[in-house]
Specification:
The complex is a heterodimer of chains A (325) and B (460). Chain A is α/β, with parallel strands linked by helices and 325 residues long. Chain A contains 13 helices and eight strands. An eight-stranded mixed β-sheet of chain A has the order 3-4-2-5-1-6-7-8, with helices on both faces. Chain B is α/β, with parallel strands linked by helices and 460 residues long. Chain B has two domains: 358 residues, 3-Layer(aba) Sandwich (Rossmann fold), CATH 3.40.50.300; 76 residues. In chain B, strands 3-4-2-5-1-6-7-8 form an eight-stranded mixed β-sheet, with helices on both faces. In chain B, helix 14 links the parallel strand 6 and strand 7. The N terminus and C terminus of chain B are likely disordered. The chains are: A alpha/beta (325), B alpha/beta (460). Chains A and B meet through helix 4, helix 5, helix 7, helix 8 and helix 9 of A and helix 8, helix 10, helix 11, helix 12 and helix 13 of B.
Chain lengths: 325, 460
């Protein structure tokens, strides 16, 4: 089981939620996981219903069986200052660089540096060990940038390594890249059963593979329950309106006579069934497309009550039952 | 269609009187915005995955079919969107979209332009190629030698293709270019799926502050020979700084950066000026921002952030486009009642015993004779009557799911409108499938423009 689990997905597919649920799922039985945020959106804090996360590893949840989830929102500026301090003892010079605008430059303008810092910090957490020799974190789960950018984000160390052919950044980048391209890393993609996210997932997998980054699993999120099966949808197309009206009436929804309450429900209910049928066919096709990608496929249900902390634990349980941890 | 207002009389009865302040949303009228010749730029912004690009394309198509000459600048490399507009792939040059219909008759308010009809509208579409755009700027503003020195600089190459702000910056640059060509009377821009919401507004400023900053001078210092004597002290400090930078970045990278900066030096002023001009253009009255969202918590939270940021930057906000809003033609039936009724159908006998009303209203429905008369032609099923009941139960469960979704969407929308009652909202009814062609985009345009007061108010 890879110790660095990177979670990406198209915007709107719920990748932060899945990353958080995965961190919880991996933290069972006394394990300790670190959930890392790299995009400065404070999505993790919102999900766990806590205040904004500082640039500091902080325990945010306890998993069933005594495991712990820590979270870290990486701030590239602070990470760079950290890094300068750690490797060069550049404490005060670091501050001077900041004044000069160099830190801002390095973290926002300079290509790739920002990403090296972010991935570098995550890899550092993966490698970190306690005095006892045990890894500080059993797993590190990263809520990564969306599918369209994730390969560049993870591979940027290659780019920097090419750009900075020697020197400390070069070494740093090489080290990070060794972790990211090893079996110690798995990149998971979150999708919905809709055309665009599925297409983007397929493209993303191709890109990751081309960059020789290890692709993990596909996680289909927000899967709606199957409320009508194929036979029922067939029947819905042909069924006499009056028969449905009678059924509705029998269920206690008003008189079945012409223009009665039950009859007035028939058309709108069948319209909803038509829409459902269209979606059903589409979802069926998309499942097929995902199936052909040849990766382990998991499905998480759409939570009827919307996403909250309880829902997160529910999804974590679901992931565990599907053998993801 | 579920968007038919007549299908939900109960809801429209509630909405206009606004007895609960939270529900009195201001409708955003899309057509007047698109028709107004003073509207020259529409910027669609919002979180990723809310249908921003599709919205931009649908708005462009609608405006074109209502007689305007439109160009849509998209950032998202959505192949399908290009295909839906009949273009194999979009690139850095505006391509004319074929198949635009003249829908002005239906659209016009019946005034003004009967004397000498204006020519029909046009739709052009392009996708931002940030590297190409950057290259073009370099080629246009530097002499050939210098341009080739810049273009082959490794630092430039990864800056132009990679860095997080380039896309945002180049989108602004392209917008400025399109506007100054003045070939179109309406430009619709789709913004990059930014890491943090309004990066595209920040990028020019950030680049500007970097270019004006001391760092540039530090980086330029070794490249410029022969400073004045009075600068000597400063230069010592600077070479110390470049020493530190060199240590961190590695000498060769620093050298690339320095060469790049030196080569770009003469162009920086131009970047800054144009970025400032585009920024001002965005604040001008001819610009309208549309914040796009879906009725989900995260998307609306981001939308609220956009609204606040735009206000803080003095950017003119036209309103919120709320995509994928669900409705129901049977909103009078609550989720709870639908589920209870579905359970009744699962256990038909219990219904008869427990629900007096049912027995009274339809004493015969559970008897199979009459029902099988109407569905009796189906041979496969052993009990067609049961099959219909199972189907009905399914329909009711489906409806309950829809009603729950609806009320969740209302809650999140209400939360937004309570925070920002001043923001006009256009709601777009959800489509069951994806958009594949112009007809699909047109449909979305119609949904966008339909003022939908029938959206159910919270009513449990």
């Amino acid at each position: 089981m890879s110790r660095l689990q990177v979670v990406s997905g198209k915007g709107g597919t719920g990748k932060t939620t899945v990353a958080a649920a995965l961190a919880l799922a991996l933290a069972t039985e006394g394990k300790r996981t670190l959930l890392v945020e790299v995009e400065g959106r404070q999505g993790i804090a919102q999900l766990f219903e806590t205040e904004a996360l500082p640039y500091e590893e902080r325990k945010i949840a306890v998993a069933p069986g005594g495991g712990e989830v820590y979270a870290l929102a990486i701030d590239p500026e602070l990470a760079l200052l950290d890094y300068l301090q750690m490797f060069y003892k550049l404490g005060s010079a670091g501050r001077a660089l900041k004044k000069l605008g160099a830190i801002d430059f390095a973290t926002t303008i300079a290509p790739g540096l920002r990403d090296v810092l972010l991935t570098g910090k995550a890899c550092e957490a993966v490698r970190r060990k306690e005095k006892s020799g045990r890894h500080t974190y059993d797993y590190v789960v990263m809520d990564a940038p969306p599918t369209g950018r994730v390969t560049r984000f993870l591979n940027v160390n290659d780019e920097v390594a090419g750009l900075a052919k020697i020197g400390p950044i070069h070494h740093q980048a090489q080290g990070v890249m060794r972790v990211l391209k090893s079996p110690d890393t798995a990149v998971h993609l979150v999708t919905l059963l809709e055309e665009m996210p599925v297409q983007e997932t397929a493209d993303g997998i191709a890109e990751l593979r081309a960059a020789r980054l290890p692709v993990g699993r596909i996680i289909v999120n927000m899967v709606r329950p199957e409320l009508l099966g194929f036979d029922e949808l067939e029947l819905a197309r042909a069924v006499p309106r009056t028969a449905v009206a009678r059924s509705l009436s029998a269920a206690g929804l008003g008189g079945a006579r012409r223009g009665g309450n039950a009859e007035r429900l028939v058309e709108p209910l069948l319209t909803q069934a038509e829409e459902y049928a269209e979606r059903y066919t589409l979802e069926h096709e998309q499942r097929g497309v995902l199936g052909e990608l040849g990766l382990p496929l998991h499905e998480l249900p759409l939570l009827a009550e919307g996403m909250d902390l309880a829902g997160l634990y529910e999804l974590a349980t679901e992931l565990r039952q599907q053998g993801i941890s | 269609m579920t968007s038919d207002p007549a299908a939900a009389p109960h809801d429209s009865a509630h909405a206009p009187d606004g007895h609960r302040a939270i529900n009195s949303i201001r409708p955003l009228a899309i057509d007047p915005l698109l028709d107004d010749p003073d509207t020259r730029i529409v910027v669609c912004c919002g979180a990723g995955g809310v249908g921003k690009t599709t919205t931009a394309a649908a708005l462009g198509l609608r405006a074109a079919e209502r007689g305007r000459k439109v160009v849509v600048l998209t950032i998202d490399p959505a192949r399908r969107l290009a295909q839906s507009m009949g273009i194999d792939s979009l690139d850095n040059t505006p391509r004319r979209v074929k198949g635009i219909e003249d829908r002005r008759e239906a659209a016009s308010e019946g005034s003004a332009d009967d004397g000498g009809r204006r020519p029909g509208g046009e739709l052009h579409a392009m996708m931002l190629d940030m590297k190409r755009t950057f290259d073009e700027i370099v080629e246009a503003h530097a002499d050939p030698d210098r341009a080739s020195a810049i273009l082959s600089n490794p630092f430039y190459q990864s800056l132009s293709a990679g860095f997080a702000g380039t896309q945002e910056y180049m989108a602004m640059e392209k917008l400025g270019q399109l506007r100054s060509r003045d070939e179109w009377d309406l430009i619709i821009v789709d913004t990059p799926p930014s890491r943090s919401a309004l990066d595209f507004l920040d990028a020019p400023k950030r680049l500007g502050s970097f270019l004006d900053g001391k760092l540039i001078r530090v980086l330029l210092a070794p490249a410029k020979v022969g400073g004045r004597a009075g600068m000597k002290f400063l230069n010592v400090g600077m070479s110390m700084m470049t020493g530190a930078l060199g240590k961190v970045l590695g000498g060769q990278l620093l050298k690339d950066v320095q060469t790049f900066v030196a080569a770009m030096d003469s162009m920086f002023g131009g970047f800054r000026t144009r970025a400032d001009a585009t920024y001002k253009l965005l604040q001008a009255p001819g610009t309208a921002f549309l914040v796009v969202a879906a009725p989900e918590r995260d998307a609306l939270r981001e939308a609220a952030y956009f609204v606040e940021r735009l206000a803080a930057e003095d950017m003119p906000l036209a309103g919120l486009v709320l995509n994928r809003v669900h409705g129901s033609g049977a909103a009078q039936l609550s989720a709870e009642r639908a589920l209870a009724a579905a359970e009744n159908l699962d256990e038909p006998r219990i219904v008869d015993q427990m629900d007096g009303k049912t027995v009274r209203n339809s004493p015969d429905t559970s008897g199979s004779s009459e029902s099988s008369a109407s569905t009796g032609t189906q041979d496969g099923s052993p009990d067609p009557d049961r099959a219909v009941e199972r189907l009905t139960a399914g329909l009711l469960r489906l409806h309950a799911e829809r009603m729950r979704l609806l009320s969740r969407e209302q809650r999140t929308r209400d939360r937004f409108t309570a925070l920002h009652p001043e923001v006009a909202v256009a709601e777009v009814a959800a489509l069951p499938g994806d958009v594949h062609d112009l007809a699909g985009l047109r449909d979305i345009g119609d949904r966008l423009a339909a003022v939908r007061p029938e959206l159910p108010t919270t009513d449990d």
